Amino acid sequence: MRAFTRGLLGIAGFLMLWELLGRSPLIPAHALPPPSVVFGEFVTQLTSPDFIRHVVATVLAVLIAIVIAVAIAVPSGLVLGSVPAVRHATRAIIEFLRPIPSVALIPLALVMLGFGPETKITLAVYAALWPILFNTIYALDELDPLLVDTARVFGTGRAGVLFRVALPSALPFVLTGIRLAATTALIVMVSVELMAGSQVGLGYFIMEARSGPGRMDQVLVGTVVAGAIGVLLNNGLERVRRRWVAW
């Protein structure tokens, strides 16, 4: 409760400073609308079906990207973490691909996949893979050999050790990787919607708001909503981690 109160005080202080700057003569009103104006526009947008559609499209695409990334990264991490030969054989390729930013692949993705939702989901999956993959691999490095030896003494095969011993032990690391991947996927999703000419999503809403005469209040509404989605994803996955793997 004390930490929650301090968090509220920090938010209140930030909003107060923003309000003062937004109404200061030093900054043009159209460049930085105060939070009172942004909140009023946010309430107005909540009644707009188009805005709700943009928010739902982004959230749904992020969730799909996370599910696909988990389905690819967790089994791959288990294999790479438990089979040294495969890990060494693929290390150079993985280390080459990992630093490539997803936004740098936008032109290639547009040529291959077009301007549909497949492009932003694919790039978000690419960005979300790495935190989950490497957390799974590192978790297997921390696996107690005594657990593996005990399972083998009782006749458990390689697949059984992998899914009945290694995966439960790696679960805290995997959930941490998923939490990091969720916010990364959200960042990439909004960036691709903003840069790749998507027809729906928060990024597209922000891009439309800044075009023409420019509506900075709407731009900030989209930005704040994207940040709020990131906070909800992070806190929700943290609660899942505490509930499922409190040990």
UniProtKB/TrEMBL annotation:
Keywords: Cell membrane, Membrane, Transmembrane, Transmembrane helix, Transport. Coiled coil: none annotated. It holds the Pfam family BPD_transp_1. The keyword Transport applies. Belongs to the binding-protein-dependent transport system permease family. It comes from the Bacteria. This is ABC transporter permease. Signal peptide: none annotated. It is found in: Cell membrane.
